[in-house]
Amino acid sequence: MTRNNVTPKQKHGKKLSHAEADRLARTRQSIEMRKAQEAKEARAHNITIAVVLIAALVTVCVVVGMLWNDSKKSATPSNIKLPAYIADSHGVTISGNGINKPQDGKPKIDLYYDYTCIHCNELEDSIGDQLLKAADEGKINLTLKPVITTSAGAPYGIYAAGAAMQIAAEQPDKFQAFHVAAFKKFEEAANGNQQILIDDKQAQDTVTQVAKSVGISDELIKKFDAGFARTTMENWTKKWGDSGIVAKDQYGTPMLVRDGKKVDGKTFPEVLQNALK
Predict the structure, then answer these.
(1) What does pTM read for this prediction?
(2) Phi, psi torsion values for 112, nearest 5 degrees
(3) Tens-place pLDDT, residues 173-207
(4) 156-170 and 175-190 helices cross at what angle (nearest 10)?
(5) Residue 72 phi, psi (nearest 5)
(6) DSSP of 20-87, one letter per residue?
(7) Rounded-to-integer distance, Cα 140 and Cα 169, Å
């Protein structure tokens, strides 16, 4: 007779009793459960390491100037020219007049950010809508200024920024939708397939997918240019680092600036309050 599908075994030539067979079965089950738990803990450990690695990638504020030492990533020449209102301001200005049409007499708020910066994404989640609303309602002139910090190691941020500037120039009505979607894609990838942020080809393909998802025309998408994106972001980042807003070792993203002075606060809502008052 068998019990629980376990056949009593021979032990030193003697047949195990049902009680012994049950104990043996429970012992084996316990061993298997322990092995399964150890395997689960090992997988969790590996996941933790991966999360720590991506967190390190996307949270460290890269000191401006270190970027120029990576000769392997020097940009290729590009014939793309941005309109003066974007090129001169190093970003996209949003006001009560619309995109790239600042209003006279309104406070000037600059937001320096990187599409692969986790704290920039946190700011976007916390106060991004309120910043855009304040700009749309004509309370401020908000200029979104992409730069290179964490995207020095995750080119998705560079290519998303370049695409965003081209979109602002040619399909300005789609800029805000792309801006929000680019951050959402970063957040999704940071918690999943991080390779699409890091691998150069996958990063470019991902930016294309984001653009298509918000209705950017195929004609404009074909114009997205990696060399333009890298050259533009490197130049803008260098000028940001030379701006004197803060000490050289204090540059990082996100950075909110009002009329040339960095806005501080213990929380993002507090930063927003200080920026708008």
Answers:
(1) 0.75
(2) -90, 130
(3) 999 999 999 999 999 999 888 999 999 999 999 99
(4) 170
(5) -70, -15
(6) HHHHHHHHHHHHHHHHHHHHHHHHHHHHHHHHHHHHHHHHS-PPTTGGGG-GGGPPPP------HHHH
(7) 21
